[in-house]
Every structure is written in C-alpha cells, then in structure tokens.
Amino acid sequence: MKADSIFILTGKIHSGKTTAVAEWSKTKKAGGILQPVINGERFLVDLSSEEKFKMNAENNEESISIGDYVFSASAFLRARSVLNNSFYSDAEWLIADEFGKLEMNDTGLEPAVSELLLKVKNTGGKKLLIIIRDYLVNDFLKKENLSPADVFIINSPEKLFYI
What we know:
- By secondary structure, this protein is α/β, with parallel strands linked by helices.
- It has a single domain, classed as P-loop containing nucleotide triphosphate hydrolases (Rossmann fold).
- The strands form two sheets. Strands 1, 2, 3, 4, 5, 8, 9 and 10 form an eight-stranded mixed sheet that branches. A two-stranded antiparallel sheet has the order 6-7.
- A hairpin with a 2-residue loop joins strand 6 and strand 7.
- Helix 2 packs parallel to helix 4.
- The longest helix is centred in the middle third of the chain and has 14 residues.
C-alpha cells in the first residue's frame, strides 16, 4: 500500500493540530469529526453539518472516563455515526480527530476510525486524515497493522497546508 490515502497529523498536546485542521478543511471537501476546545469546553464538531455537541458528560449521563476526564458516551456514539456516514458522503477528505488513549482501548471514536481506515485502504478514492498525539503514533500503527511506509506522516500543523 502506498502512503497516498492515509495521512496522520501528529504533534504534542495543545500544538495547534485541531485548529490547523479546522482552517485547512475549509478549503477542502471534508467530512468527519473535529474535537475543538471552545471557551474551555471540549466539543465534537461534524464537519459536514458544522453541528457541535459537548463531549463532557452531564450529571447522571452514561459516561466514558480516562484519567481526570469524563466524557459523554452518547456524544461519542454520535461522533462514530458521523465518521461512518462520512465515507458515503461526497467528501474527498475524511477527518478523524483524534485517535488517543480512549481509542487505543477500543472506546471513544472506536471502532469507527479503524473501520474508516479499512474502507479507505480497500476502496480508494478518498483520503483519510487522522490526528494522533506524537507519543501514540507507533502504537496506532501497530494496532492497525500499518508500517510508516503505509501512511504519510505530517509532524507539524503548519505542514498540513502543503498537501
């Protein structure tokens, strides 16, 4: 497999990855999910509809926890649906923000990201951009049975604008 359909944007925490993708995606036919922080709250944003939904769990809501963070299980369910549907849209670029510790443990955006990856690898025609923190890239590649030659790794948000 050539590294022409699977792209990874990587960098440190709070290095501007999501912000850069939000700007970059305005110039592309893009679908999928972004996870921006807006006024101190984390949201999931459907790139096709621009609909935003809060990630933080409300009182008595079913939740997913990792470290000190508690997220809404229903928000992730909606995000997985957005990712699944994005493959069948007219989007040329599919965005998965972000593949992190939750996804390494098969929750959060999983299994939608892995399924999207397989669809893009097997059918062609679409490009997939996955945002992954720098310290998880090798774990992601191992989890998905990919080699560095199978993906195009972008190691700083500024370089995104050259693809």
